[in-house]
Amino acid sequence: MGTSTCHLCLKTLSSPYALNTHTKTCTGPKRPVEPVIHECPTCQRVVANAANLKRHARACTGPKCPVEPVIHECPTCQRVLASAFGLKRHISVCTGPRPDRPLFYTCTRCEYRTPRRDTYERHAATCTVTKYRCTLDTKCQHYRFPERSYLAAHMRVTHGMTYEAADAAAAKVAHQ
Question: Percent of the chain having pLDDT more than 90?
Fold first, then answer.
């Protein structure tokens, strides 16, 4: 396969297939784009985009800065955080136990513990540690199940067990 060249922008591509794919979206020669400079008027720091400039302006302590800096400080431990969201999340951990939430969220599949519900939920969604595996047959010992009910369903379908027998066998495996 030889190289192919686009007749619109003169780009060289590795194959006719790549040329066919390229020509579907090619708009011709690219015009040079004037670079946009995002510079803080106070300290002359250059940042990548307007959003970063806005974020920088909030924290910039220069005398000519158009936005007053906002300090997000924990009233309990005086820790200073970068954002209001970070302060709110920190306070939920810093203030200690409350009656409406546990002190620690503990994963039921592994030994992971955290005081924050959001990090626990993220962990629980991706935790792949499994407790249950089939011990009835050497052919399916490599099957691992995250919950006892999945193991019981496997035993019913694969090994022809009744509901009661499968649930009892799954419970026995869970206590080993």
Answer: 0
Is residue 143 located within the same domain as residue 161?
yes
- One domain for residues 113 and 75: yes
Integer Cα distance of 75 and 81 in angstroms: 12
CA distance 33 to 38: 15
Q: What is the CATH number of the domain that holds 120?
A: 3.30.160
From residue 63, how far is each of 26, 54, 67, 102 by CA, in Å?
A: 48, 16, 10, 45
Alpha-carbon span 117 to 123, nearest angstrom: 10
Structure tokens at 152: 């019981």
Inter-residue contact 135 to 145 (CB < 8 Å): no
Q: Among residues 137, 104, 109, 135, which one has the least CA distance to residue 124?
A: 109
Average pLDDT over every residue of 149-174: 84
| Average of per-residue pLDDT values in the chain | 77
User: What pLDDT shows up at residue 29?
Assistant: 67
